[in-house]
Amino acid sequence: MTNLSARARTLLDLHTAPEILVLANVWDVISARAVAALPGVRALATASHSIAATFGYEDGENIPLELHLDMVRRIVDAVDVPVTMDFEAGYGDAGETARRAIEAGVVGGNLEDRLKPLDEAVAAVEAVLAAGRDAGIDFVLNARTDAVVLAGDRPRVQVLDEAIERGRAFLAAGAPVVFVPGLVSRDEIQTVADALGPQKLSVISVPGVSLPTRELQDLGVARVSTGPFTQRVALTALQDGATAVLGGGTLPEGTRALN
Asked: Domain 2-246 - what CATH class?
């Protein structure tokens, strides 16, 4: 457990440092090893959507938790850096799911609120953090609010106000960082980052629309991850390469032996 505690502390320090933590999400052992081998990679994050897709399941807790945890355990065992897991909304029992994730070697996690009543969402955050304390580690919860992604056609000011309200409640409950997917514009990121405080906001990088990571750092963002998009990058390369061969050509020059 000492090693687990040290990994948790390392992950927490990476979130609170002035330099933004960049996490390219992984979904299996070979993707984890390929990313972990890169210079500057200090931690890994799993992508629940991508792990589910690997086994043929739709996103949204459709993959059995045991199967999900088995893949995460394999990833943890394959690398020497801290791993944080996306366990969606907690599979019905956020505290128990966090406990099982910690048993698999995970030291951080994402938890979606899915816009449940705020007291219920805060209770789930508290349950996850309690599981960490029971295990003797500072579990790094990336407490996610879906206020923006589930906003519908509500006025944007109301949406951001709700994201801030929920984020502050999660921080008050002990979460070290708040994840607000759907924030991509500079002004909105700045508004939420200022309201939550330095190194408290986590966002996702969306191809073609998100700000560069260096600019996110300047705005006070603590963490940026890639969610399912790294798997989509890999699948795009696969399909493009296969298309070239099927069309009478060859696979791309410069393809590296990463497995």
From this structure: alpha beta
- State residue 73 phi and psi, 5-degree precision: -60, -40
- The two structure tokens encoding residue 94: 């956020």
Q: Sign of the CA dihedral 240, 242, 243, 248?
A: positive
Spatial separation of the C-alpha atoms in residues 259 and 257, rounded to whole Å: 6
The pair of three-digit structure tokens given for residue 250, joined into one six-digit string: 């060859």
Q: Distance between CA 24 and CA 35 in Å, rounded?
A: 7
**76 backbone dihedrals φ, ψ, rounded to 5°:** -55, -45
Q: Which residues contact 258 (CB under 8 A, 6 or more apart)?
A: 30, 33, 34, 37
Could you give the strand order of the β-sheet that contains 108-112, starting from the edge strand earlier in sequence?
21-23, 221-225, 201-204, 177-179, 140-144, 108-112, 83-86, 44-45
> pLDDT per residue over 102-114, tens digit each?
999 999 999 999 9
Backbone phi, psi, residue 156, to 5°: -65, -35
* Chain position carrying tokens 């009543």: 117
DSSP state of 58: -
- Return d(Cα 150, Cα 147) in angstroms, integer: 6
d(C-alpha 259, C-alpha 58), whole Å: 27
Question: Is 90 exceeded by the pLDDT of residue 1?
Answer: no
Instruction: Quote the Cα angle for 55-60-61, to 5°.
Output: 70
Phi-psi region of 86 (alpha: psi -120 to 50; beta: other; left: phi over 0): beta
pTM to 2 decimal places: 0.95
Helix axes 118-135, 156-172, angle to 10 degrees: 30
Please, which pLDDT band fits residue 2 given cuts at 50, 70 and 90?
low
At residue 193's C-alpha, the angle toward residues 188 and 195, to 5°, is 100
